[in-house]
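Re: that backbone. Tokens:
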């Protein structure tokens, strides 16, 4: 009888420690279900839209799949719809929506593309200048770079896009890893 009572006390103690330390599967599931019913305060992103104050474009961001992990790195499939993008320009898996991935983007001519052409070569990363004048398809019209080019932009999900700038002599120093970083953004992203 004494052994049985000692065993019962040991099981009860272990059970109390386990239930106090970690939530059960059913408790976690209940929290997830109740979390969707909570009412949040109305804010500036009431309809899920964001306005880029630099370009004036409106965009919508939708997360379709999100897997919780045990660190700060999110694992998710997120898509983005920006205003001003013509339907014929985008033909991906999400239609007019674009995958929300980090990228470098800009407005460039279809004739010259990403290259800068001319005597300076095609290496845009080393020769970070405007793309230059572009001739029209009939070769009688032309556009100067300030008429169509707003600069090269770095887009980071959740942070938006920011212009890539050429590092000036008075700019803050880049990382001290032995490499030179000729480009940076206002948010101090260093690019080489």
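Recovered sequence:
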């Amino acid at each position: 009888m004494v052994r049985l009572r000692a065993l019962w006390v040991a099981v009860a103690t272990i059970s109390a420690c386990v239930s106090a330390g970690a939530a059960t599967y059913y408790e976690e599931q209940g929290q997830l279900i109740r979390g969707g019913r909570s009412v949040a305060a109305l804010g500036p992103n009431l309809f899920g839209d964001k306005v880029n104050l630099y370009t004036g474009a409106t965009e919508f961001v939708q997360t379709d799949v999100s897997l919780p992990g045990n660190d700060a790195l999110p694992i998710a499939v997120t898509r983005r719809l920006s205003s001003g993008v013509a339907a014929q320009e985008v033909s991906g898996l999400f239609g007019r929506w674009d995958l929300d991935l980090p990228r470098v983007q800009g407005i460039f001519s279809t004739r010259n593309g990403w290259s800068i052409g001319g005597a300076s070569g095609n290496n845009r990363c080393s020769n970070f200048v405007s793309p230059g004048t572009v001739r029209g398809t009939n070769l009688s019209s032309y556009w100067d770079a300030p008429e169509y080019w707003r600069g090269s932009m770095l887009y980071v999900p959740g942070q938006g896009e920011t212009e890539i700038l050429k590092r000036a002599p008075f700019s803050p120093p880049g990382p001290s890893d032995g490499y030179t970083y000729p480009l940076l953004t206002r948010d101090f992203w260093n690019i080489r």
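DSSP finds three helices and eleven strands in the chain. Residues 2-21 form the longest helix (20 residues).
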